[in-house]
Amino acid sequence: MPSWASLLGRLAGWRPLWPVINEERIGLLCFEAAQAVSLLSAGQPLRAELFGPGGTPLATLDLSDSALRQHGLRVHRYQLQAGPHELRLQSGRLRWRVRWQAPTLSPGQALVGQACTRHGTPLLFSAPCDASHYPYEDESLRPWFDQPDAAQRVQRQLEQGLVDEATAAQWLHFIEHGYLEIEQAFDPALLEQVNTQVDQAAAAGHQGYVMGSSQRLEQLHRPEGPMRRLWLQPHARRIVEGLFGSGTARPAQTLAFLYGSQQDAHQDTIHLTPFPAGFMCGLWIALQDVQPGSGELVVYPGSHRTPRLRMHEQGCAKVVNQDWSEFGRRMVPVWGQWAAAREPVVYRPKKGSALIWHENLLHAGSARQFPELTRRSVVIHYYNDDTIAYSDSTGEPAMAATRQELGLAG
Fold first, then answer.
1. Buried b (16+ CB within 10 A) or exposed e, 10-19
2. What is the DSSP-derived secondary structure letter of residue 19?
3. pLDDT of 351 over the 70 cut
4. CA angle, 81 then 77 then 6, to 5°
5. What local confidence, expressed as pLDDT, does residue 79 receive?
6. If 0-12 CB within 10 Å is exposed, 13-18 middle and 19+ buried, where does residue 341 land?
């Protein structure tokens, strides 16, 4: 039975405007407008209005039906005060709205929201997410390990007994080189179950997988099973959260490999993009003892200090419909030049060991000298919950595990 609120809305001429599953977003609210688009004529103008507590007008946006169809409506959540909010969309006599209760922000989220407001980040928009929206020049918002006194902070914590010597050594290595290693950190029985799931997905041709190729198997964590348990494992999150220093680490995706990727040198942050910078990292887990010549992971120590490539600064259009041709012409050669100027390190771990890399670290897959050798591995990327998470390369908001999936309140 519909609620009295929805009945009154219909009598007043309002139709419901449904949100996308916003619990999976970080720092953004995304509102689905498929129903609205289906009732609009081509070229029909629209106006969206956002109201805060007490009916206070917050933002107005004039947009086209084509923008609404492609992007829906998006709101930067950390610029909202706690309390009731309403988003209205109108075109002539057609009207839609949605109401929700904005929660209280964490201190980190509030700082991000204040920085965005000062910068002029759009509160309400119907366009691709883009790095130009955010004040990346404000280095005070970056994580502790990207601050000038990072090494001194570790030394003080060690002297005060807040960290042990092994952790301090890992953090200092991360500060200087952009990655750290963890030996045999994962349950062998769980990893065997993950290997079985990967084998089954490969045999079934998951996402068009061709046996023996360097293709990756994406998002095997979505169904219930071993990969999902690994994705949600508290132990891995605690390691990442210890590195971030504050906030909750939320896993965003899984990439599984049977064989070496042979991928060119690249930085992840243009695809998995946080604001503020620095609050995303990759976790590479060995599902077997990695053998020489199998297409091992290669990292470039110190390369996390190179500039971040951003689409608007390179004059590169957003990737649409999986057409990566312009991206390949403009971005990949820059990474290749940077990698050529550095000495690579080959990562050849034992099963169950892991490597955590800084979001901006250059890394690659080496050539498969012996194509018959497997290089079983899983990559999980994590965002900090106090960020705005998106993909600068595609302009799409990021998706990650919900707080409920992680067993957390709110």
1. eeeebbebeb
2. B
3. yes
4. 80
5. 98
6. exposed
Amino acid at 241: E
Judged on CB neighbours under 10 Å (0-12, 13-18, 19+), 389 is buried
Distance CA 375, CA 351 (A): 10
pTM greater than 0.85 (yes/no)? yes
Helices (H), 120-271: 150-159, 165-177, 188-203, 226-231, 234-244
pLDDT of 235 reads: 87
* Single-letter residue type at 111: L
**Minimal CA–CA distance to 141: which of 168, 121, 161, 163?**
121
Amino acid code (one letter) for 199:
D
- C-alpha angle 254-213-328 in degrees, rounded to nearest 5: 70
CA–CA distance from 32 to each of 18, 19, 89, 252 (Å)?
Answer: 5, 5, 11, 21
pLDDT of residue 3 exceeding 50, the answer is no
Going along the chain from its start, the domains and CATH numbers come out as: 4-127 (2.60.40), 139-390 (2.60.120.620)
Q: How far apart are CA 19 and CA 226, in angstroms?
A: 30
Gyration radius (Cα) of the chain, Å: 23
* Cβ count near 67 (within 10 Å): 17
